[in-house]
Amino acid sequence: MAPPRLSSILQPPSAVDPRVWRACAGWSSRLPPIGSHVCYFPEGHAEHAWYPPDLSAVLGGGGAPFFRCRVVGGRLLANRRSDEVFSEIRLDPSPSAAPTEEAAAAAWSGGGEGDDGGMAWFVKILTESDANCGGGFSVPRSCAEHIFPPLNLAAEPPVQTLSISDLHGTAWKFCHIYRGTPRRHLLTTGWSKFAESKRLISGDAIIFVKDKSNGDLFVGFRRALRLFDADSPFLPFLAEIDPEEDERTISELGFSRCVRGRIPSANVVEAARSADLGRPFEVLYYPKAGLPEFVVPEAEVDAAMRVPWKVGMRVTLSVEGEDSSTMHNVLGTGQNLHGVCFR
C-alpha cells in the first residue's frame, strides 16, 4: 500500500491555480520543473519542522549533506487553516527515476520567472486599523484602480459590491466605497467578518489577484511570522520561542505563526531516511517562510561547489522586497566558512 501524502496528515489542503499560487508565493519562490534534477538538503528541510529532528542516523556517515534526486511530481496547494500556499514535491533519488503520468499531465508552472501568467496582483501589509475586526480596510489607490473593477465616480457616493474568492473557492462579498475627506477607497461591509474568519493581524500581507482575461478576483495571504532558533548559524539574530506557547497558539488558531512549525519533525526524518535508502519520497515546501530552499537545482549546487570560497570574498544575495513586488541585491562579505554545513 502506498504511504499517505504528507499533506493529508494535516487538514486536507486545497488545490490552487498555478497562476494564483505564484502571485501569492511571490517572485522569489521557485518550483523545480517536473523531470528536472535537484539536490535535496535534509538539514535545510529540518529548519521548516516544528522542532529540530534528529538526523544523525542519516547524516552521521560524513558524506555529502545532500541527496541527488529527480522531481517526479508535485501539487500546488493552500493550507485550509492559514490560507498560506505551499507545494508538495515528489522526489526520487534512484538514477532511473522518471516523471509519473499524473505529474506529466499536471498543471505545475503558472509561467516562468518574471512572467505574470496573465494575472495582476497587489500586496499590502495590514495595519492595526486594517486588522481590527470592528473596522474597514483601507484600499491603496493603485489596488483600487488596477485590480478592482472601475468605480462610477459620478455616483454619490461611488460604491460597488465586490465578490472575491479565497484560495479554497469560497466567495466573499465586500462593499467597496470611495468616500471621506480627503476621499479614499475602503472595503466596509463584509470586511470585519472576513478579517475575523481569517484571523488577520497587523503585519499579515494580503494579496489581491485579478485574472486579466475575465476580471475574476482572488485573495490570499502571507502570514506575519515570528522567528525561531537563536542558535541558527544563518540567522543569528533570531529570538527563542517557548514551545508550550507555540502549541497554545496552534491550538487556538489552527496554525502556527512561528517561522518553524510548518512540517512535523517526523516527516523530515522519514524523508531523509527514504532518500538515504534510495526510495521515492515527498516533501512539503512553504515559500516565503523566512528560511532557505532545501530542494535546489542540481546545476546550481554543482556550480557553487566549484567556487573556491574563502573568507573575505564578496557575495551577492537576491532579496525580495517586503511586499514581494520587487527584488533587490544585497552585497556582503563572507566572514566564516563551515565545511560541513549544508549551506
TrEMBL record:
Query: What are the entry keywords?
Result: Auxin signaling pathway, DNA-binding, Nucleus, Transcription, Transcription regulation
Q: Name one GO cellular component term.
A: nucleus
Q: Any idea where this protein resides?
A: Nucleus
Q: Where is the TF-B3 domain?
A: 122-225
Q: Which InterPro entries match?
A: ARF_plant (IPR044835), B3_DNA-bd (IPR003340), DNA-bd_pseudobarrel_sf (IPR015300)
Q: Which family is this sequence assigned to?
A: Belongs to the ARF family.
Protein name (record): Auxin response factor 16
Origin organism is: Ananas comosus
